[in-house]
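Aim 2, interim progress: modelling of the manganese (II) ion-bound target.
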Amino acid sequence: MAHQPSTVAFSPFPSERMSLSLIRPLFSVPTAPLVPILGRQEGFPIHRIFCVGRNYAAHAAELGNTVDRVAPFYFTKPPTGLVIEGGTIAYPPGTEDYHHEIELVIAIGAPAFRVPTDEAMKAVFGYAVGLDMTRRDLQNTMKEKQRPWDIAKAFEDSAVIGAITAAEDFEPQSQRISLVVNDAPRQEGHLNEMVWSVPEIVSHLSRYYHLTPGDLIFTGTPSGVGALQPGDRLAGAVDGLSPIAVTIGPAA
Ligand code: MN
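Predicted structure of the complex, ligand included:
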């Protein structure tokens, strides 16, 4: 039987393919939320979420790890896993050891590729307070088996962020970073304890990615990480930035 010309989007015959501009989505999918920016009407759109591992020596030690100055390392989270602070986040499935990690977040506002440290700050739009939520039991299992961390780090509601403060109004120095759970202090550190500084992180990451406006970088957590329960109230802060608050929802 002779081939019947079709008008489907993905015909194997190039001459029969629809123009890509005519193709409509079959269904809609979640998108990342816009992040509020202090003093601005516009929201900050999200492209990617990078996270630095073991960037405070005291936190590395509490998990039985050491730090070095050879090179920072990274993992990522899906942009759709991001939540704006102020509400309730889901207690995730599949864990019995769901941890908080309070972090300084870098918001990239200009392209950066292979930028030296002394030029890296030009790519920084601003900063926010964030939470890198972690299924610690799954992370420990993956570490033991030398498998990827995705299931421990990249899940729904796994990243929380507060409003962004422009870099003109905040310079990371020795500001205090802290997390309080149900009015009890849990995590505390200072930004000058970071093993890798903001410009060092941006410069190093730009050797491996074309950093793009909309990229976020979670810069690691100070010591004091621990388990959360449904109903816990978290209050996170970096002195000089907009604080964050979230409540943990019921277990799935
Ligand atoms: Mn972290």
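The first strand starts at residue 35 and ends at 36. The pocket of manganese (II) ion is lined by residues 51, 101, 103, 132, 218, 220-221 (CB under 6 Å).
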